[in-house]
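How a chain folds remains the central question behind the approach discussed here. The record that follows shows the chain in one-letter code together with its fold in token form:
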Amino acid sequence: MKAARRRAAPENPDHRRVDDDDMIRTLTINLVRTIVGLPWPQQFELVRRLGLSPVPASPEADAETGDDLPADLLTLLATMVRDAPWMRDYTLGPLIWRPIAKALRLALVQLAGCYFPEAARLRPPEDIPDLDPSLEIAVRRLLAGANLTGADLAHADLSGADLTDAYLSGADLTDADLTSADLIGAYLSNANLTRASLCDTGLRNADLTGANLTGADLTGANLVRADLSGAHLIDAHLTGADLTDAHLVRADLTSAGLIDADLIGTVLIDADLTGAKLARADLSGADLSGVKLIGADLTGVKLIYANLTGADLTGADLTRADLTSADLTGADLTGVNLTSADLTGADLTRADLTRADLTRADLTRANLTSADLTRAKLTDIRTLSPRPKGAILANVIGLPTSWTKQDGWRSG
């Protein structure tokens, strides 16, 4: 092919000559990089002009799906990159733009799902060959930092994509597949991720404030230091997810599954975890002040040094939970199951433990000042503390040996 030639470069005579195949690959990669930086409406228009639109806008657009790429499209591509720094070494004749445009179209068909808003609905040409592996690897790397703000990516296959630092605020990712994708530092505020698959996805430091993750599958996802404040995670699956130091202030996690999840140091102030499943989750050092955990499954959970002041745990199951040194000041523990729970050093000042079951619980050094233990079950509890000051002990079942029997008590 003689359509392309290198400009004379006497100042750099040893510069390696680039053959046509390498040049096409290089220019295609750089074209994709340029397109990724465009606002998504312009991205879609260019993709449509490359003949990949599912519904042709006109008979002329339909004709563009053939091998005869229109001259104005080739001119458009040339204009886009005319002043690009990486073009300074090339003088391109009109013929070379045809194989470049075809290679670009091929790259977009193979990888558009990772880059372009209309990805899931693109119509690839028939009998399209596989993309050159080296080109595929290079193009995939270009997604990092892509601007897809407000993009329509519903049902898109983005599995394994590199979306590091990508801008996806307000994007529609309903039912999208983001399995094992890399979204570290991505901006997903107010994005719609309803029923999206995010299994084993990297979301470290991601901004998911106000995002809708209802029914999303985040099993094994890495959400370390992610910001999910105000996010909707109703019925979301977060089994085994790592949410260490994440922020979920006022997040809605109603009926969410957080079994075996890591929530060490997580901030869940005023979050709603009604009916959530948190069995064996680690919430050590977490801030759950004002949180709703009504009817939640907290069996075997770790809440060491956790802040649960003013939390509502009505009817929650905390069997075998570790609440060592936890702060439960003013918490509502009405009807809570604390069988065999460890409350060593816990602060239960003014806590409501009405009808709570503390059978075999460890209350060593626990502070129960002014707590309401009406009809609570204290059978076989372990405590060395004196009778708590100001506590309401009406009709308590079970008598700690270190406490003095009072009227209204009966032994279990």
Summary: The chain has a mean pLDDT of 78. DSSP finds six helices and two strands in the chain. Residues 4-140 form one domain. The first strand starts at residue 4 and ends at 6.
